[in-house]
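Pasting two entries for a bug report.
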Amino acid sequence: MLKVDRPKTLKENALESLRDAITSDVFKPGERLVERNLCESMGVSRTVVRECIRHLESERLIVGIPNAGFVVATISGDEVKEIYDIRIMLECSAVRSCALNADEAVVKELHQLREKIANCLQNEDIMQALKLTTEFYKLIFTTGGKHVAWDLVERLNARISRLRALTLSSAGRKTKGPDNLLNIINAIEQKDTDRAEEICKKHLTEAAEIASKLT
C-alpha cells in the first residue's frame, strides 16, 4: 500500500505547538495554564485546548491540581535519574543491535540526520533538532529490531525531549552532542558493538549529570 502524508489537523497543530512551548521552557515548570489564554494565543476553541491538555497530561508534561486547574509538570531529580537509567539500558542495547544489522543505506541516513541535527543546533533551532534526534534514535532502534523497546521510549519521548532541551543549554553541549553521535555512527559503520555501546553510555551519562544539576 502506498503511503500518503495527510495535512495535520487543527488539534494536532495545537498539540504540537503547546508541547513545543513546554519543551522549550516558554511555559515553565509549575506555571498555571489558563484555557482562555491558550485559546486566544493559539486561535483555537476551548474544546481543542482541553483535548490537548488531556493528551499532554497523559505524557506527564502537565498535571492537574485540585481547585487550581492544570500546571506544567516539574521533573524531580529521582525522575531524571530513572529516565536516564532507562535510556542507558535501552539505547545501549539498541546501538549494539544496530551495529550488527546496519547496512550502507542506514549508515548514510544516520550521517544525514546527524548533520541536520548539528546544523539546527548551530542555528539555534532547538525544536527541529529535537525532532530530528528522535528520528535518529528511531532509525537505530528499528534497524536493530528493537521495536518493543522503541515503543517504551516513545512513551517517554515528551519528557526525554524536555530534558534534552535542558541539557543543550549547558556550555559546549550543542557541539559535544553531535560529536558523540558521529562517534556512535562510526562505531556502527565499523560493526564495533562494544565501542558503539561504550560511546552511547558515555554520551548519556554526561547528559544525565548535566540534567541532574539543572533540575
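Entry 2 (this is the one that rendered wrong in the viewer):
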Amino acid sequence: MTAPALARFAALLADDTRAAFCLALLDGRAWTAGELAAHAGVAPATATGHLHKLVAAGLLSEQRQGRHRYVRLADPQVAHLIEDLAAHLPPAPVPARTLRAATASAALSRGRTCYDHLAGALGVAVTDALERTGWLTRAAGFALTPAGLRWLEGLPTVRASRRPLVRGCLDWTERREHVAGAAGATVCAYLLGQGWVARVGSGRAVRVTPSGGPALTELFGTDAAWSA
C-alpha cells in the first residue's frame, strides 16, 4: 500500500453521490442503478458512472438478471468500513429539514440493520442483553462464552464465510459498540425470522413488533428498547 493508492481509494467515498449509494446499500439488499439514482437524486447516466468506479475498486459487486443490473456491497468487511467511517463523524447531526426526514432519522436511531446485523439503540440493547445473560463477554474484546456458543448453535445459521465469529462495531448514532460478525448476523436473522423485529418500510430502519416485546423480555430480560 502506497500513499497515492490510499488517497485514490479514499477519494472514492469523497463524493456525495457515491457516499449516498454506499450508505443506502448498508441495508444489505441488492439495488438497481435506477433505484440508487432516484435515491441520490441524480440522473441514471451519472449513477452508472459512479457505480462503475465503485465496482472496479471492489467496494461493490454486481449481478445481472435479465435486463436489470443489481449492485450490493461487496462483502461484510466493506459494510464495516462504511459504518466505521460514519461512526467517526462529528456527533452533532444536521437538523432535518422536513418532518418526514426527522421521522426517518429517529427511526434509524432507534433500530436499523447495519448490512446484516442490528444497530442503533436496539442493536446496542441486544448487545448489552447478550452480556447480561452471560452469552457474550467484553473482558478482552468481543467473544462468545461457552453458554453463548451453545445458544448460537441452536439458531438457524447464516451462510458460512471467513468473517470473524463475533466482533464489536462502533455504532454511529449510539457511539457505543454493537455486536457484529457472523454471530451478529445470525442473531439479526433469527429475530427477523421469528417476527420479533420487523423492517419499517423498505429502508434500513427496524422496530420491535407487539409480539417481539414480550418474547425479547422472556429471552433477554427487561430493557427499555423493547419493553416500552
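Dev reply: Rendering is fixed now. As a check, the viewer should reflect this: The longest helix spans residues 44-56.
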